[in-house]
């Protein structure tokens, strides 16, 4: 019986349903509160654009909502785990299940199964909804909430180096020779390594001699002077193909498309550590939901009347939030090459899975 993790169909459905309802309730609460706070910041910027109104605010909310759901779903699973297990403990249901011969793992099995299903759903939701919403919202934000051109290839916030100089564009539209840059800034470095001057332009188009900047304004850092330039062409070695490579946003790219972009970067001899870390994290992030019941399991056991239930709940919550801190730190290390991408993505997951399993075995099994 100890190796039959679902000995009772009725009990499995009871626990899974209870857990799923609490996940949904906590997620709705978190997302609504955070969305309202986010709208307080963004509404002023949206309405500052002539012609924008309530429709644009609702559009922003609709684009922001999937991002919040994807980001805070693992937190919702953690909080739902604590709420569910504390309730079962307080009502002596855990004691009844253990008296019936169930082990700690059998008690947690329905929750782990539910979290696994949530993780799979989260991955599909990220691929089909979140990436598209993120790409649209970033392009809209980069265009200062003005109307974005009807172009499926709109990209935002592109930075490309030519030697020691840097070309940045707030938005990129089109492909090939039809590529257009908006919100362009050219940073020219001095021999000492600092920024010597900046050349800003609202729009740039590709010519055979480089990027033609319209209405360019030059700002000299040392003298603090600005001047209007005549027709200016810069970045001859930065081709539209390089711009296309430089505009890959892992958060706005699906799992399979990002894999193809990584292969293209590798063929071009470009650094791929950040993209690979984000690619692996697209798998790890949804699966972190399955880790939460294991980390919060400490709240399920121990006598409620012993006075330690609150302490156990705090410990479970602390373990869960510690995982998110370590996961973000490891991902940052992987982005700049401090850790191999595979290690940066999976090491926190494996480490805390072992920690949770160790705590459960040592205290209850």
UniProtKB/TrEMBL annotation:
<feature type="transmembrane region" description="Helical">
    <location>
        <begin position="107"/>
        <end position="125"/>
    </location>
</feature>
<dbReference type="InterPro" id="IPR005495">
    <property type="entry name" value="LptG/LptF_permease"/>
</dbReference>
<feature type="transmembrane region" description="Helical">
    <location>
        <begin position="338"/>
        <end position="356"/>
    </location>
</feature>
<feature type="transmembrane region" description="Helical">
    <location>
        <begin position="20"/>
        <end position="40"/>
    </location>
</feature>
<protein>
    <submittedName>
        <fullName>Lipopolysaccharide export system permease protein LptG</fullName>
    </submittedName>
</protein>
<dbReference type="GO" id="GO:0055085">
    <property type="term" value="P:transmembrane transport"/>
</dbReference>
<feature type="transmembrane region" description="Helical">
    <location>
        <begin position="309"/>
        <end position="326"/>
    </location>
</feature>
<dbReference type="Pfam" id="PF03739">
    <property type="entry name" value="LptF_LptG"/>
</dbReference>
<keyword id="KW-0812">Transmembrane</keyword>
<dbReference type="GO" id="GO:0015920">
    <property type="term" value="P:lipopolysaccharide transport"/>
</dbReference>
<dbReference type="InterPro" id="IPR030923">
    <property type="entry name" value="LptG"/>
</dbReference>
<keyword id="KW-0472">Membrane</keyword>
<feature type="transmembrane region" description="Helical">
    <location>
        <begin position="68"/>
        <end position="87"/>
    </location>
</feature>
<dbReference type="GO" id="GO:0043190">
    <property type="term" value="C:ATP-binding cassette (ABC) transporter complex"/>
</dbReference>
<keyword id="KW-1133">Transmembrane helix</keyword>
<keyword id="KW-1003">Cell membrane</keyword>
């Amino acid at each position: 019986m100890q190796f039959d993790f679902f000995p009772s169909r009725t009990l499995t459905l009871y626990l899974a349903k209870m857990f799923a309802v609490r996940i949904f309730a906590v997620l709705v609460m978190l997302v609504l509160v955070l969305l309202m706070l986010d709208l307080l910041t963004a509404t002023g910027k949206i309405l500052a654009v002539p012609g924008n109104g309530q429709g644009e605010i609702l559009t922003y909310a609709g684009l922001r909502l999937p991002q919040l759901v994807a980001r805070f779903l693992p937190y919702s699973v953690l909080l739902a785990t604590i709420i569910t297990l504390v309730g079962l403990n307080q009502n002596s249901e855990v004691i009844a299940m253990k008296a019936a011969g169930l082990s700690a793992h059998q008690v947690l099995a329905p929750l782990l199964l539910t979290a696994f299903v949530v993780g799979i759903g989260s991955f599909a939701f990220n691929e089909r909804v979140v990436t598209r919403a993120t790409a649209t919202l970033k392009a809209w934000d980069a265009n200062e909430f003005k109307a974005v051109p009807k172009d499926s290839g709109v990209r935002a916030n592109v930075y490309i180096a030519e030697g020691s100089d840097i070309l940045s564009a707030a938005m990129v539209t089109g492909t090939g020779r039809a590529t257009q840059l908006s919100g362009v800034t050219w940073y020219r470095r001095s021999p000492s390594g600092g920024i010597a001057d900046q050349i800003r332009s609202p729009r740039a188009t590709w010519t055979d001699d480089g990027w033609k900047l319209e209405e360019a304004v030059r700002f000299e850092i040392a003298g603090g002077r600005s001047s209007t330039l005549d027709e200016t062409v810069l970045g001859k070695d930065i081709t539209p193909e390089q711009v296309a490579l430089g505009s890959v946003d892992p958060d706005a790219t699906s799992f399979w498309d990002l894999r193809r972009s990584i292969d293209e970067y590798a063929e071009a001899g470009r650094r791929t550590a950040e993209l690979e870390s984000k690619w692996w994290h697209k798998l790890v992030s949804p699966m972190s939901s399955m880790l939460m019941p294991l980390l919060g399991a400490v709240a399920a056991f121990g006598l409620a009347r012993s006075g330690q239930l609150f302490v156990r709940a705090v410990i479970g919550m602390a373990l869960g939030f510690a995982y998110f801190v370590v996961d973000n730190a490891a991902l940052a290390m992987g982005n700049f090459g401090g850790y191999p991408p595979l290690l940066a993505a999976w090491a926190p997951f494996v480490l805390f899975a072992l920690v949770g399993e160790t705590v459960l075995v040592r205290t209850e099994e």
